[in-house]
Task: inverse folding
């Protein structure tokens, strides 16, 4: 493969990463907006909650529980699903980068991106 | 405030303003957003950090998509330095779990004052610093960026120093719930002598990953409140898109002075509250 081919391939891959980020953000923002409408429709007239820190309940903290809870279409649960999608967007980008560097046969960067990916996955499932 | 709808609208409006200013000045929305939520809306600083951090992911990812297209972003530099920022972010988020709100507010105030100083200081033109860096060559960090006169090559210097500074940038991001883009740009532009436009776009590319590392921990510890994060995330995104559109038509010097004045006031107030334990 010539250097020019290699560069074109890298460029195509970079464009793909850009598109992935764009799609992730638009999807997440749409879900958050939908959740916001549901939330305000049901709770909009209530007095604002206290601003003292209590920590969110368990079903708004754990990725698996958030996905499950959102199926109930309660506004707060749907918003949290959108936020989870948002947090997952850069993680997906790093995951795709691992594949990209594998295809470029670049072992150093495969290892570097795998390290970053492990840290990100660890924090998402961390208790 | 009467009810949840009113609170949501006011927070959303404030977030549009924070995102707008953040995009115009290049400092990002987080640095002004957290103090705004804490000082004007009386929100607990931990909820403010959670909401700010998710909005940082949104704005940086959206902007990164556009920048990658233009060809300034150096993906290798970004991926390499993300190792430092993600470990830093995890360390910062753990520290945030164990120190009180007052300590965080005091650090936040100091960072605001430092940001004001950095944004006003005249940027030193980066000349060559030492010879080529063997680490940069080994990691193939050197790159090419588009100029009106055609593609121009650049070399990356002082990689270990830059890597260390990026760890600090990550710690600040996880500890304060901000993107710490200004600090990342400083490390790349001044320490590693990467061209300014490459530094800013690559910094932006890295912010989402850095923020995602601490956001996972914030989420697990219940710092991310959907009722607050919803208007903040949507507002900041809207504001930063508008800011980015307007950017080519503004006078950056005037803006910087105005923004610096705002963050000095916020910084002093945060520092005062932190030091007197009023958080």
Result:
């Amino acid at each position: 493969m010539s250097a020019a081919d290699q560069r074109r391939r890298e460029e195509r891959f970079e464009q793909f990463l850009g598109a992935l980020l764009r799609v992730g953000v638009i999807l997440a923002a749409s879900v958050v907006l939908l959740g916001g409408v549901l939330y305000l429709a049901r709770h909009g007239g209530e007095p604002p909650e206290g601003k003292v820190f209590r920590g969110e309940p368990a079903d708004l903290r754990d990725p698996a529980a958030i996905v499950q809870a959102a199926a109930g279409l309660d506004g707060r649960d749907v918003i949290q699903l959108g936020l989870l999608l948002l947090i997952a967007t850069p993680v997906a980008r790093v995951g795709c980068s691992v594949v990209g560097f594998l295809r470029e046969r670049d072992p150093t960067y495969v290892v570097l991106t795998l390290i970053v990916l492990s840290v990100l996955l660890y924090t998402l499932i961390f208790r | 405030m009467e009810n949840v709808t009113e609170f949501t609208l006011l927070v959303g409006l404030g977030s549009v303003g924070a995102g707008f200013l953040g995009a115009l000045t290049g400092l990002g929305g987080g640095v002004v957003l957290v103090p705004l939520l804490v000082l004007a809306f009386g929100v607990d600083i931990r909820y403010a950090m959670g909401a700010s951090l998710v909005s940082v992911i949104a704005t940086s990812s959206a902007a990164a998509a556009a920048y990658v297209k233009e060809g300034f972003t150096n993906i290798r530099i970004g991926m390499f330095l993300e190792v430092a920022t993600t470990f830093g972010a995890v360390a910062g988020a753990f520290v945030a779990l164990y120190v009180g709100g007052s300590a965080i507010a005091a650090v936040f105030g100091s960072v605001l004052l430092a940001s004001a100083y950095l944004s006003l200081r005249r940027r030193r033109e980066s000349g060559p610093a030492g010879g080529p860096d063997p680490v940069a060559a080994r990691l193939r960090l050197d790159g090419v960026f588009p100029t009106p006169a055609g593609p121009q090559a650049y070399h990356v210097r002082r990689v270990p120093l830059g890597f260390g500074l990026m760890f600090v940038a990550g710690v600040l991001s996880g500890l304060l719930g901000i993107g710490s883009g200004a600090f990342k740009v400083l490390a790349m532009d001044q320490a590693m002598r990467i061209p300014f436009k490459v530094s800013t776009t690559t910094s932006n590319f890295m912010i989402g990953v850095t923020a995602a590392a601490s956001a996972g921990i914030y989420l697990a510890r219940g710092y991310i409140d959907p009722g607050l994060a919803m208007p903040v995330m949507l507002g900041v995104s809207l504001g930063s898109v508008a800011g980015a559109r307007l950017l080519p038509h503004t006078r950056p010097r005037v803006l910087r002075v105005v923004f610096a004045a705002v963050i000095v006031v916020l910084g002093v107030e945060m520092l005062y509250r932190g030091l007197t334990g009023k958080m």
Observations:
- The helical segments of chain A are 3-43, 63-70, 75-103, 107-125.
- The mean pLDDT of chain A is 89.
- Residues 3-43 of chain A form the longest helix (41 residues).
